[in-house]
């Protein structure tokens, strides 16, 4: 009796299994011909920018170039780069579009900024978007452009540029190769008093591209991390920087050190003369590499 029952049931089970297999193959199984599937953790943006915010200070009639690199965390479709309207007159991009990219890919963009002559001082905030159709790939890159009164100074020996305050005087090379000294219009350098400027930029070689912490432990003449009252790390458009407050010396000073390629730049506010008027901070923030 059992054998007869099994003979009747087995064909039915076999038919059901075959039918299920066909349904799985043609309807339920994932398709591997449509390309890789985007895999990302919930809440994690599919791309990241480095630096994650571009801040540029320029006077009218000048231009600057920066780079920003995106890292793709998960598959993104082909995209175009799009600026918000407030930035369109001042910013151009290369490349302006991207093909579909898999997770792990990286792409560097050149961001060019220019300010027309006669532009009034103002601050323009906006964002750069990667767009696919009507969708923005999170997250956008913030860009801030400060248009200021001043002059763009390029120090080719030091490999950098900065914006000097309006009507200030500048000299290069006084304190060594790549150095810059800045003096207000009502002052002049005085060797007898060992005065060379209110704001001084000095350059030290850093051939091992050491971090600032390692540089001052291994190569710096004075370890500012030890002698300053406090130190605050930050970034200038992706460049490592540290602000050292109340550095002792002939005159107490504030020093900002910046790691730039194979050298370290030290911006000094001599006697802390420009902590309140914002001139020192603006000069430091205007730093751009010259490549």
Key structural traits:
20 strands, seven-stranded antiparallel β-sheet, 291 residues, 4 helices, 41% strand, six-stranded mixed β-sheet, Immunoglobulin-like, alpha+beta, Protein Transport Mog1p, Chain A, disordered N terminus
Question: Can you put this structure into words, describing what you see?
Answer:
This protein has 291 residues and is of the alpha+beta class. It has 2 domains: 47-147, Immunoglobulins (Immunoglobulin-like), CATH 2.60.40; 150-289, Mog1/PsbP, alpha/beta/alpha sandwich (Protein Transport Mog1p, Chain A), CATH 3.40.1000. The chain has 4 helices and 20 strands. Strands 13-14-15-19-18-17-16 form a 7-stranded antiparallel beta sheet. Strands 2, 4, 6, 8, 9 and 10 form a 6-stranded mixed beta sheet that branches. A 4-stranded antiparallel beta sheet has the order 1-3-7-5, with no helix packed on it. The longest helix has 27 residues, at 2-28. The relative contact order is 0.12. Mean pLDDT is 86; it is low at 1-7 and 9-41.
């Amino acid at each position: 009796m059992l054998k007869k029952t099994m003979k009747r049931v087995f064909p039915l089970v076999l038919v059901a299994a075959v039918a299920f297999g066909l349904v799985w193959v043609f309807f339920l199984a994932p398709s591997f011909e449509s390309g890789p599937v985007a895999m990302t953790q919930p809440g994690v943006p599919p791309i990241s920018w480095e630096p994650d915010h571009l801040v540029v200070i320029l006077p009218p009639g000048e231009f600057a170039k920066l780079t920003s690199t995106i890292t793709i965390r998960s598959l993104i479709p082909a995209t175009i780069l799009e600026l918000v309207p407030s930035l369109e007159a001042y910013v151009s991009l290369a490349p302006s579009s991207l093909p579909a990219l898999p997770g792990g890919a990286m792409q560097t963009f050149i961001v060019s900024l220019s300010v027309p002559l006669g532009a009034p001082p103002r601050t323009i905030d906006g964002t750069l978007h990667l767009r696919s159709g009507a969708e923005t790939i999170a997250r956008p890159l913030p860009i801030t452009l400060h248009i200021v009164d001043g002059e763009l100074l390029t120090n080719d020996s030091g490999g950098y540029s900065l914006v000097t305050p309006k009507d200030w005087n500048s000299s290069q090379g006084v304190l060594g190769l790549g150095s810059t000294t800045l003096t207000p219009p009502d002052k002049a350098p005085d060797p007898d008093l060992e005065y060379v400027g209110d704001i001084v930029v000095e350059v030290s070689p850093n051939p091992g591209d050491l971090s600032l912490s390692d540089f001052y432990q291994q190569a710096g003449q004075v370890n500012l991390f030890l002698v300053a009252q406090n130190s605050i790390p930050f970034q200038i458009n992706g460049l490592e920087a540290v602000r050292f407050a109340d550095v002792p010396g002939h005159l107490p000073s504030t020093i900002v050190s910046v790691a730039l390629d194979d050298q370290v730049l030290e911006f000094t506010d001599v006697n802390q003369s420009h902590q309140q008027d914002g001139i020192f901070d603006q000069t430091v923030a205007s730093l751009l590499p010259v490549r």
